[in-house]
Amino acid sequence: KLSKGQLVYASGRLVRREYDDRNGNPRESWELHADTVRLLGQGSEQRRAERRQARESAPADDEDIPF
After folding, report:
1. Are 37 and 8 in contact (CB under 8 A)?
2. To bridge 38 with a disulfide, which of 9, 21, 57, 66 should be the other Cys (CB 3.0-4.6 Å)?
3. What radius of gyration, in Å, describes the C-alpha atoms of the chain?
């Protein structure tokens, strides 16, 4: 399952589509019809969760506080 922030590699065919919007203005969109999708790394949300978990599990070190 893909989620926002994940780094992926995708290859395939790039397709241009023309259409008219609700006001009758001509528009275009580009679509990637992917043949291959590969996950390249962890998503930013997962990295944030890992950092948060590391902070929460780190012991509090009060020895360096001067008061």
Report:
1. yes
2. 9
3. 23
